[in-house]
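A favour, since you know our structure tokens better than I do. It will help me judge whether the discrete encoding reads sensibly. The space below this message is yours for that.
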Amino acid sequence: MINFNQLRAFHEAARLQSFSAAARALHVTQPAITSHVRALEASLGVRLFRRRGRRMVLTETGALLFLQSREVFELERTMERTVAEVRSLERGVLRVGTTKTYSRHLMPSLTTQFHASHPGVRMVLDEGTSLDMCRSLLDLRNELAIVARVEGQPGVTFVPFREEKVVLVAAPAHPFAVRGSILFRELEGLPIITREEGSGVQTLTRACFDARGMTPDVVVETGNVEFIKEMVESGEALSFLVGSAVADDLALGRLVAVRIDDQDLTLDVNIAYLDEDTLSPAAAAFLELLLVEK
């Protein structure tokens, strides 16, 4: 196996055609260069230089090795440039997980801001439930996640980011929509469309039912928010959704938000990651942006 310190000494001596010049370039003594070259020759079992007095030339083997060593150290310089570019955020890949709702209503503005500062960094956005995205951190598929807080995830750090109102939505002709407000117990026995297992909205609303000893009459469970809104608009059922996901529908009158007088429905949105010290430069920069945007 070739010793790279010895190879570097040989390469510089061959490039500069001088052991003393190689010593100055590598900031070592000339005897050190001589020792490295001799050790390399001994390990390879060939002579790399022919010497006569102060004159030295490469042997045929030495010339071939020099051509290949030049490629090695050019590659080394390329690798160093790559690492420097990643550290300075001139290039890199950022993997972020979030829910489908936040992907549509929250991430575009954040992505635009980040890309404006770091155009060379490519963002890979992963979507799923809050639980799925927390697990993606533990599986090392993503470095950061913007999700509802998920209990029972050892090793995951949650930093409060913002609060989202969860609203009960109904069709405009629904009796609840006409009344404008209800008590939570009035949902007993009414058809409900819920978000999928592992979503923050489902976890929050399920806890509200459980606290009252109620069991929701779930007719559909799905992660497709557009499907949920269509079903609610048709009058098939009621549903709980994040306010930002239905803001346009409420403004256009396609859906109506029903106030629940005896229950506050607020979802805590968090920035989640495993360990701040292990974040890549790109992830650390995006975390800094998120903390500013809190």
Q: What stands out?
A: The first strand starts at residue 49 and ends at 52. The domain at 4-87 is CATH 1.10.10.10 (Arc Repressor Mutant, subunit A). The CA atoms of residues 170 and 256 lie 5 Å apart.
